[in-house]
């Protein structure tokens, strides 16, 4: 896959600077139907994608690309437009009831959402938006129509893919519906450019969805390095969060659903304590996040599992927290545990490392890119709790392991700044605009 990326990269570098600046979009319509950039990550369907959209939009605005983000209105309390930052506007579109609409019910609201987007555009002169950038397949369908109607190129980011998720399902998890697979296939065909988080995701687009390799560009998501940094260290963070100074603290942070596999961490802790009961007095297992997706069906499932495994006394359930406090949880932890079945990138893995904390993760999706195995953390093949317990045992035995690996992790995360991601995304926009113009010219020629 890397040859596709380097070819695309070379082409954009070879373009004269003057031309490139002229060809950059001035204003981008960004579409995020099912999750608002104003929502708290870790609640409902809000997660890494929210953070991605907010950070990317702000950094694009900083390099003079205005961004208007269209998202579904989920409360009457918010005005139709909110300025998120200078050059970044969030537009709330009425589509379906404000409350209680599951992500699975949203396809039926795409028509209403598209209507709202078209109404917002109707008030502008032609050519108001130079490009459409859609996130996730629901937005891709709206973007497909909007881009055609506006005579603008479409750039699409999948974030997750039905075929990949269905190939890596957790036990008892619900597969993604056929309608989503069909929808994703149509968007891959329609988009002028597809942005993948990693070269593995780019390969999956080509393999599973027959994407044209020349249309796929790899842009690693970034991390807010001002917010996620080691700061005043582990001891201070533990004091602020009322956590014991000398404890082994394996942390889970994210949406509580089978896909993210927080149960594997609990089972691993149970295996560890069965094997080494003396650790019980110095282990604390925080689970920070709210139920989401298929996890909403059994919101208490994880608490019940902890009780059944006999480890309820060492597990602390905490609701989702704001980004600044999340950074403190990362600093306080001995290790972040991510036993996910599927991750397109795994933004929290980079956030934790930027805060100086190593990561123990499943070797899936983008996690092998995010985590340098045995240097900034450990990658585990499969989901056997005993394999995770073995790594936790190493952290328990070597108190310096967390800080040694954490220092390497913080250095590794430095290469994932959002400025780099925004500049690379702007290059993809430029390439999309060029190929769109060529396509229009050959069509009319």
UniProtKB/TrEMBL annotation:
Catalytic activity, reaction form: 1D-myo-inositol 3-phosphate + UDP-N-acetyl-alpha-D-glucosamine = 1D-myo-inositol 2-acetamido-2-deoxy-alpha-D-glucopyranoside 3-phosphate + UDP + H(+)
InterPro entries: Glyco_trans_1, Glyco_trans_4-like_N, Mycothiol_biosynthesis_MshA
UniProt keywords, alphabetically: Glycosyltransferase, Magnesium, Metal-binding, Transferase
Coiled-coil residue spans: none
UniProt domain Glycosyl transferase family: residue ranges: 236-410
Binding site for 1D-myo-inositol 3-phosphate: 34, 45-50, 103, 136, 160, 180
Lineage top rank: taxon: Bacteria
PANTHER family: D-INOSITOL 3-PHOSPHATE GLYCOSYLTRANSFERASE, GLYCOSYLTRANSFERASE
Subunit and partners: Homodimer.
HAMAP family membership: MshA
Family, similarity comment: Belongs to the glycosyltransferase group 1 family. MshA subfamily.
Protein name: D-inositol-3-phosphate glycosyltransferase
Originating gene: mshA_2
